[in-house]
Predict the 3D structure of the following.
Amino acid sequence: MKLQAFQTERFFAQYEFSAKHLLSVSDCETITVENLLELANMTLADLGHLALGYTESQGNPELREAIARTYQSISAEDVLVLGSPIEGLFISFQALLDKSNEAIILTPAYDALFNLPEDLAAKAIPWELKATANDWQLDFERLESLITNKTKLIVVNFPHNPTGFLPTQIEFLKLITIARQYNLWLLCDEMYRGLEHLPDDQLPSAADLYDKAIVLSGLSKTHGLPGLRAGWLVIKDKTMFQGVLNWKLYTSICPPAPTEFLALAALKTAEKLKQKNLEIIKQNLELASPFFQQWEDLFFYRKPKAGSVALVELKQGNATEYAHQLAKEASIVLLPSPFMRFPDRFLRFGFGRTSFQEALAAYDVYLANAKKTE
């Protein structure tokens, strides 16, 4: 299989580790290994005693039990621990798709959610979120019009990256009903689950609602631990589980022992990590509202309902050109929408880090100076 360019990561590679201000990151504020172990009532000595031998291919049984407890109807046997979250997408799509299939992908979407199905299936079809005056909406009539006798898979991501959209429970159940009606697999990326801005808005996991769901989750976003590379798949269907596991044996074979050890520590203190990052997001959203009101002639802002990101519309100009110009002139990084299979007039903002306030202030100065020169 020949893979197309991973545009989002290539874009960030140009600027992420040299720019002063990252306004577009999707992860949340991280902590050190020492801090994590303290929160979990563990020590660096505990980590130091860890043996670096092979681990179980499916994952450490204690870790799988801890993961299973975060769902309603999942057992440890339904959990596959990964070498990294993105490995879960690669091996799932490999097990699911071939050139006789079509896949429908909710867009905008992270590159891997669209590019891999497009490279593997006969056809990958975008199912676009609709931008309304104040929000984003799912178009179920459009979804059903895209389903053919070749359709095998629907791919979604809730809470949604990059828009911050979250369906209602009724809408989510309608999606499950459509997948069941047409006997389709549903791959649901739930990496941002737990970052709902209102606690009552959290959706059930697709894994608890539908036997043909494949759920991806992990500790990179909600828990702010992307450098840990801790992720997992939840798959109830035993035949599909074995097919995906077989692909894993050709990629990472087994999870890294230090990752599993620290992932267990993170799950012990998961609520504290989540609440810390939710507070940061809420504080940053409060800063964002007056900023976008001040610059309403430049941006159309739809406030996110969940997650750590939002997709903001430029009222004029080309988002890709603008993003490169902004990075070069002001050392401020915003991700443009074409890399996420969406029209070239949107920019992704990230609200999950404490550096947001400083970055937004720098952007405000840049815009003010640009206005003076008009």
About this structure: Residues 51 and 185 are 39 Å apart (CA to CA). The longest strand covers residues 151-157. The chain has a mean pLDDT of 96. The chain is about 40% helix and 15% strand.
